[in-house]
What does this fold into?
Amino acid sequence: MDAPAREAAVRTIARDGDPDRYTSALFASAAAREHLFALYAFNVELSRVGELVHEPQLGEIRLQWWRDILACACKGEAAGHPIADALALAVRECGLSRQSLADLIDARRFDVSVKIMPDTVALDDYLGETAGALFRLASEVISRGRRAEESDAMEPAIRASSIAYGLTGLMRALPLHAARGRVDMPEDVLVRHGTSPAELLAGEMSKGLGDVLAEFRETARVALSSAKRLVAALSPATREAFLPLALVDPYLSALQRVDPLRDVAEINPLYRLWRLSTYRFRPSA
It folds into this structure.
């Protein structure tokens, strides 16, 4: 597959599978854009593993396939897979963290085998290895092979962003994941509020689940406030990697207007485009 065809295929997967991150990448510098598309398309493919397989062993095999094909591609071998080849190019040109890429793959073992989030510690780890890894890798893409910015705010910004963006995404995906037997809300928090994973999987909306979701919406809002302050302290170029945060507030508002077990909270695509095109991180934000 030649470069234009590969880039077109990668863009299509990123656009269709993750329109929020895809649209945010449209506002990145031209040099970073295709690499961001590759990164986000890779994440889309990983997220689909848990959707496409029903046996944990098959899911593990698919994740190992991604580890192997990416390792070969990063050595310069043509993988023959548009996403693997595009991401390998990003690794070579931008010096992407192999550990963060490995974290992205390893985190998806939850999707294919564990299925029920045991506690808040496991949730924090999952958010850090998924949303957090993507923010870190995106910042490395933006830096274009230079050492990623090492300010006192960088790692705290990634952590706060992973909670704000990742937790909001899990709440939006709750009806889809529950339909597949997956529970992203930590069992210890559900029990603390008088409900359980079994009730959630049965599609039973309860006061307890409502309280859990209200607690996590507030957690996401607090994390977002911290993330915006920390990102504002980074260089203007580095802030491009965190642009998806612009959509957290609208989604949190939308989450309060839907049935959380039956409806996926959405925002108008034109509003998404406008918000991403006009959003600015400011020290006072």
